[in-house]
């Protein structure tokens, strides 16, 4: 095993690009910190071991593969996906994201979660979010385009849970944020948020400055606006998935059937809704450009005023 460049850091582990038996891989191993207590290191080891046990039991095309477990040092050897994660890809407006690719990403993520929820006992990921979705292809015609990753918080659901292992409110369901009992349906809620990200390519409640504001909004039942360029079926998926009441969230069979119906519309989907979104994106770019120009103009005016003031001060000093 050859360890290369650092490509990611989590709460208790680092991920390096590396080589294993001549194949490029991702190596996930424990964070090394000499100042950590023995108990803390033991807890981290237990977390990574738990993740390894969960993920090695999940063999599915839309879940990242565990190729091997190393014991000295303890590490997970994972398949390497060079295209990065969904969050980074979606947020860069210059990256192409046609509707057929959006639907394929959505279907791949849904298939992965459905597979976990059909296990006995049910396995809940508990940290579904766009950064935890890795891209394997940008061709919607390929069998797999997206894979679910990072199973550090995943666990079997034998009864309702009380404390959620993640505290980021962006993808967290209202029942978990409220510290009420919750189950695997928090994954369905988070899937709805990821679909909204795929649709808008924006930050969830990006207008808020503090995470507490997002928490308060989600708990009160508020959700970001779904733009007009969203196909009705996709809008229905988002709204049903992120609804307040967990028992009203849809079954995966309905989600995938609805996505299949959208997929069947073919090029018409891009012609109708893609054109609308492109027009809005163009307007936003113009607004952003104008805003940047205004800021530069203000900055230049301030510099000019400062230079004038300095020249005036020099002149007044000479006249004294």
UniProtKB/TrEMBL annotation:
Domain Protein kinase: 1-262
Record-stated family: Belongs to the protein kinase superfamily.
One Pfam family recorded for the sequence: PK_Tyr_Ser-Thr
Protein name: Protein kinase domain-containing protein
Coiled-coil ranges per UniProt: none
InterPro entries on file: Kinase-like_dom_sf, Prot_kinase_dom, Protein_kinase_ATP_BS, Ser-Thr/Tyr_kinase_cat_dom, Ser/Thr_kinase_AS, TKL_Ser/Thr_kinase
Gene Ontology molecular function: ATP binding; protein serine/threonine kinase activity
Keywords associated with the record: ATP-binding, Kinase, Nucleotide-binding, Serine/threonine-protein kinase, Transferase
Keyword tRNA-binding among record annotations: no
């Amino acid at each position: 095993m050859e360890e290369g460049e650092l490509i990611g850091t989590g709460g208790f582990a680092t991920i390096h690009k590396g080589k294993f038996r001549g194949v490029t891989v991702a190596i996930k191993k424990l964070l090394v910190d000499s100042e950590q207590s023995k108990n803390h290191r033991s807890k981290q080891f237990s977390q990574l071991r738990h993740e390894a046990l969960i993920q090695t039991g999940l063999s599915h095309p839309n879940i990242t593969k565990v190729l091997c477990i190393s014991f000295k040092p303890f590490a997970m050897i994972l398949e390497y996906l060079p295209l990065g994660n969904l969050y980074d890809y979606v947020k860069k407006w210059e990256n192409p994201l046609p509707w057929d690719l959006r639907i394929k990403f959505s279907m791949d993520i849904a298939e992965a979660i459905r597979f976990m929820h059909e296990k006995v006992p049910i396995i809940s990921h508990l940290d579904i979010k766009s950064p935890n979705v890795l891209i394997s292809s940008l061709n919607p015609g390929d069998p797999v385009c997206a894979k679910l990753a990072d199973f550090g918080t995943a666990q079997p659901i034998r009864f309702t849970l009380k404390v959620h292992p993640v505290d980021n409110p962006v993808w967290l369901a209202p029942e978990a944020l409220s510290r009420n009992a919750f189950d695997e349906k928090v994954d369905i809620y988070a899937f709805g948020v990821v679909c909204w990200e795929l649709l808008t390519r924006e930050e969830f409640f990006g207008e808020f400055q503090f995470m507490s504001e997002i928490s308060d909004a989600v708990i009160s039942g508020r959700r970001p606006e779904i733009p007009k360029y969203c196909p009705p079926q996709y809008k229905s998926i988002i709204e049903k998935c992120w609804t307040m009441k967990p028992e009203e969230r849809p079954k995966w069979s309905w989600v995938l059937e609805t996505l299949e119906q959208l997929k069947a519309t073919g090029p018409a989907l891009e012609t109708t809704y893609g054109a609308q979104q492109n027009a809005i994106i163009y307007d936003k770019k113009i607004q952003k450009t104008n805003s940047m120009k205004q800021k530069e103009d203000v900055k230049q005016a301030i510099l000019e005023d400062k230079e004038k003031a300095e020249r005036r001060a020099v002149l007044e000093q000479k006249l004294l």
